[in-house]
Amino acid sequence: MNLAFDPWIPCIGRDGRPRLASLLHCLTDAEIADVAVRPHERVALMRLFLCVAYAAQGIPEDYEAWAACRENLAAAVKDYLEQWRDSFELFHQEKPFLQVAGLFSDAKGKGKKADEGTEDGLTPAAKLDFALAAGNQSTFFDHEALNPGRASSPEKLALDLLTYQMFSPGGLIGSVMWNKQTTGRSSLDAPCVPGSMLHTFVRGVHLPETVWLNLLSVEDLRDYATLGEDWQGRPIWEMFPAEPGDTDSVRNATRTFLGRMVPLSRAVLLQKSGAAMLLGNGLSYPAFSSVNQDFPPEPSASVVVVNTGKKNTQGYSVLGVQPGKALWRELQALTVRRTAGGAGGCLALTHVDDGDNKGVDLVAGGLARDQANILDMVESVFHVPAPMLRTNGHQFYATEVQVAEDVERNALAFAMERWRAALDGSWASRLKLAGGKRSEECAKLRAQAARDYWTAVERGLPLLWAALDALDSEDAADKHSQWRNMLRQSALDAYGATCRGDGQRQLRAFVAGQRLLRSQVNKILALPKEVRA
């Protein structure tokens, strides 16, 4: 199967109908509205799309060159994919896409070629899909983990392979022989997964426009220029490493902009049956972190200011996916233009004009992980109104999200603890005995109320958008008051649903907690007296 010209990518047409599309069609067909895949798969596909687009006509020098490349992109991509057709064959004998052709099993210390009919050194291909039960992944939603013959179609194998190369978490891994060299048992994170990295893209009217909107110029990528004169690099299929010791090719693949767009973080050789593969450690990719900042952050990442823990000094880190925290609460960090060496959202925001009233559509998503375990996959699509792209609107939104969080953390949580203490005389002793796990006990206590509160707040988000749109208008104060009143009522409702009881003791405890809740909420929201009852 040729990934450049055969359909394999799940998409949705502008007519609303699902379809499979080739790489060429995704980059050139304006009738394709978007990809229809899971969050991490979107990130992987977008990086592939962008890599091909860059390789086809080069990285634009500046904003004017970026704007002009839109008209020529489709023709350039078609010519490029024709030129490199063989490199996109999934099962090519000599250069299979994102795989190592000369890969051998290292079972029992012997370098043996794995055939279709052997089991030596083979790993189930299901391991490429983080949602399936294979390796250390959970069986909760998948009960076929013990089925050694489970096979995937070539289309699914291609998508899983691409995604696995970009998101595979580090840890122990089996050994294989790559051109007579045995790969190590320890592997590092693939480029897209460190820190449970959250990836953001600007979304256009159709898929080709989305790709163009996320292309960057040399001016936008000045952080990467610190890597040296050859920082732009070449896609990995143009300069594929012959072995782990192939110095020039490995450097191109791991320490240049284009080389790492489509990484080879694991050495893989798929079996045509679709049920098994050879799997070992691939190339090691440096990553941006708050400790070691000698490598630029990924273009789709958001960089935030963090405390380093060293004498109250501050540094930078990528914004990560946090299970249980909706992405709209991070939107203020996702919509700041990133400066060179500083904090901000994805680099593609540089193309957004904050002077008009159109706003921008953003897609944000990623994987939450705990070491080698995948915890969750999240994605959200936002229409960011134009006022939020300006300083006053952005500050307003950030303030209101912080206020909503303060209501939950400093009002609802305190009220829950007051209620429990009044209801249970031994609660204080339990917390004292918990010692270092005190915070865990308190978190369990308020978990249900917190979920109810945030669910209600999310239903009321249109009030926040309305308040944002009304900034500097006659309705600003009224819209703002409606949003904050909703926060107050959501906290009261969440407390009431969790703590209400019928007995005399339960009622006394309920009133004690409610009194504290009302007092704290009124302080945080600064509501006028007429709405404090």
Topology diagram in text:
Layout: E1 9-13, E2 18-21, H1 23-28, E3 32-35, H2 39-57, H3 63-83, E4 103-105, E5 123-124, H4 154-167, E6 171-172, E7 176-178, E8 181-182, E9 186-187, E10 199-203, H5 207-214, H6 247-255, E11 266-270, E12 276-281, E13 303-307, E14 314-318, H7 331-334, E15 360-370, E16 373-384, H8 391-423, H9 427-434, H10 438-459, H11 461-469, H12 476-499, H13 504-525
Antiparallel strand pairs: 1-2, 1-3, 4-7, 5-12, 6-9, 7-8, 10-15, 11-12, 13-14, 15-16
Helix pairs in contact: 2-3, 2-4, 8-10, 8-12, 8-13, 10-12, 11-12, 12-13
Write up what this structure looks like.
By secondary structure, this protein is of the alpha+beta class. It folds into 4 domains: 9-88, no CATH class; 103-191 and 224-281, no CATH class; 303-386, no CATH class; 392-531, no CATH class. It is 37% helix and 14% strand. It has helices at residues 23-28, 39-57, 63-83, 154-167, 207-214, 247-255, 331-334, 391-423, 427-434, 438-459, 461-469, 476-499, 504-525; strands at residues 9-13, 18-21, 32-35, 103-105, 123-124, 171-172, 176-178, 181-182, 186-187, 199-203, 266-270, 276-281, 303-307, 314-318, 360-370, 373-384. It has a 3-stranded antiparallel sheet. Helix 2 (39-57) crosses helix 4. The longest helix has 33 residues, at 391-423. The chain starts with 8 loop residues before the first strand and ends in an 8-residue tail after the last helix. The relative contact order is 0.10. The model is unreliable at 114-118 and 528-533 (pLDDT under 50).
